[in-house]
């Protein structure tokens, strides 16, 4: 599907194919309708390498800003590549209340970097958040976390070459200059792996402990003992 901005017609797509995104405002995966297109004459005169378009979320009517790379300038228009960059990404959700306070602060900042497309700042904050979590888990925390991460790699069937930067960020890098440079795809893998590591290390245990305490509260008898539930 070619995306073309014509001199007299405005934005045109070669097919009627529609696309949807997770809206950064309402969080709903929705169809996006073109709302605002830059002036064609200015683009043809300045010939920028990238063009910004504004789409409207059909769910909440909010404007969503996307940046496209220019494929070709023609006499009567501009053809854009189909791939685009979301200038505003949906905020990542996580049950932060189960994390140790220091880890929570660092992980929130890591997610903020990810949502802003600052993937290498994101990697740096992930390293700090992971180190904080290892300390909170105790003496064998790092080893347990490593087992969780390797299990996630096997479960997701990620090959060693693609997974090597993830392990280096979380377990091997000791200085900032040791951190690998991540692209968008690698940052996405790192995000999901770290979320899973935190879930296994803190959220799962916290939810289970709370659920058991609630169960015990409701089966206590008047003498402070426990009686089996029916």
Structure explained in plain terms:
The protein is α+β, with helices and mostly antiparallel strands. The chain has two domains: 84 residues, no CATH class; 124 residues, no CATH class. 46% of the residues lie in helices and 21% in strands. The protein has a seven-stranded antiparallel sheet. A hairpin with a 2-residue loop joins strand 6 and strand 7. The longest helix is centred in the C-terminal third of the chain and has 36 residues. The protein is elongated. The N and C termini lie far apart (61 Å). The mean pLDDT is 87.
Count of helical segments? 6
Q: What is the number of beta strands?
A: 7
The H-and-E topology, N to C, reads as EEEEHEEEHHHHH
Q: What class would the helix/strand composition place it in? A: alpha+beta
The structural domain count equals 2
% residues in beta strands: 15-25%
**What is the straight-line distance between the termini?**
61 Å
Q: Which segments are poorly predicted (pLDDT under 50) over 5 or more consecutive residues?
A: none
Radius of gyration: 24 Å
Instruction: Report mean pLDDT, rounded to a whole number.
Output: 87
Q: Please summarize the sheet with the most strands.
A: 7 strands, antiparallel
| Helix percentage | 40-55%
Shape: elongated
In the sheet with the most strands, the strands line up as 2-1-7-6-5-4-3
């Amino acid at each position: 599907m070619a995306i073309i901005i014509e001199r007299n017609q405005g934005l045109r797509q070669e097919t009627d194919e529609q696309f949807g995104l997770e809206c950064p405002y309402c969080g709903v995966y929705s169809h996006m309708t073109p709302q605002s297109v830059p002036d064609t004459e200015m683009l043809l005169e300045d010939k920028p390498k990238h063009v910004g378009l504004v789409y409207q979320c059909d769910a909440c009517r909010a404007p969503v800003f996307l940046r496209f790379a220019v494929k070709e300038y023609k006499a009567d228009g501009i053809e854009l590549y189909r791939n685009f960059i979301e200038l505003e990404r949906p905020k990542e959700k996580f049950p932060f209340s189960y994390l140790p306070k220091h880890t929570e602060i660092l992980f929130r900042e890591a997610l903020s970097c990810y949502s802003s497309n600052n993937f290498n700042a994101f990697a740096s904050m992930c390293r700090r958040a992971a180190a904080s979590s290892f300390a909170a888990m105790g003496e064998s925390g790092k080893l347990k976390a490593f087992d969780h991460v390797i299990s996630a790699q096997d479960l997701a069937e990620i090959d060693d070459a693609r997974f090597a930067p993830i392990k280096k960020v979380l377990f091997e890098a000791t200085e900032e200059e040791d951190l690998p440079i991540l692209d968008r795809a690698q940052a996405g893998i790192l995000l999901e792996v770290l979320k899973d590591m935190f879930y296994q290390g803190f959220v799962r245990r916290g939810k289970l402990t709370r659920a058991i305490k609630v169960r015990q509260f409701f089966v206590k008898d008047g003498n402070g003992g426990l009686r089996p539930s029916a």
